[in-house]
Amino acid sequence: MAGLTSSTIGRKYAMALSAIFLLIFLVMHLAVNLLSVFGETAYNNASQFMGYNPLIQFIMQPVLIFAVIFHFVMGFVLEIKNKKARPINYAMNRGSDNSSWSSRNMIISGAVILAFLVLHMYDFWFHEMNYKYINGLPVEESRFWGDLHAKFADVWRVVLYVISFVLLGLHLSHGFQSSFQSIGARHPKYMPMLRKVSIWYSILIPLGFIFIAIYHYITQ
Ligand code: HEM
């Protein structure tokens, strides 16, 4: 681990691995939350299973939290190192001529996602930890859907979530292909395919989350 994070290449590799892990998490998180649109029972059952399964709670969840924190810390470290390595921007380098906005501003979209996650953890995760582990309240399968639905009654929360999901899409539009390239997927034969999957992923995943937030708002 120390070896991975002590060189620039190692750091980029470790960053990419944590990104790929989070890309997989996002698909699963979207799938579970989409159930809330199709029916209360399906969503309650899935949340009950995930919320009380020891493998998910005590192994997957800590790994996920570690991956999230690691990804953000390494993102900031890489940004600072890059800035130090090139303190003066090349006078002739007009960024927009040779790179996209999202690739030049990963740190900005990342910071917005970090701010979103603070609100999101406050909204759902702390509430859940409080319920189960601090207050030790009994299993009550029917509570999950109602709790989620109630959160989206507030238009400002919906607006903040939707803005964050748009920034998430921009972050993913560069991050998806960049992370696969960092772990070696650079073969010219596969690049067009990687680019296509990256574009579709970065559109469909945020759109799915936007749909859930707006669905719960308009069905209050
Ligand atoms: C409308 C969109 C979303 C909804 C309704 C939603 C819902 C939830 C809920 C209910 C939980 C608590 C799970 C539990 O511990 O029981 C949760 C946790 C979490 N969410 Fe979301 N989420 C959404 C979008 C996102 C996005 C876009 C991200 C990442 C950028 C994200 C990252 C997380 C993380 C890291 C956790 C804590 C880990 C976990 O327990 O699963 N969520 N979310």
From TrEMBL:
Keywords: Membrane, Transmembrane, Transmembrane helix. CDD domains: SQR_TypeB_2_TM (cd03498). Coiled coil: none annotated. The chain crosses the membrane at residues 12-38, 58-80, 101-122, 155-176, 197-218. Gene3D superfamilies: Fumarate reductase/succinate dehydrogenase, transmembrane subunit (1.20.1300.10). The keyword Transmembrane helix applies. The keyword Cytoplasm does not apply. NCBIfam families: sdhC_b558_fam. This is Succinate dehydrogenase / fumarate reductase cytochrome b subunit. It comes from Chryseobacterium camelliae.
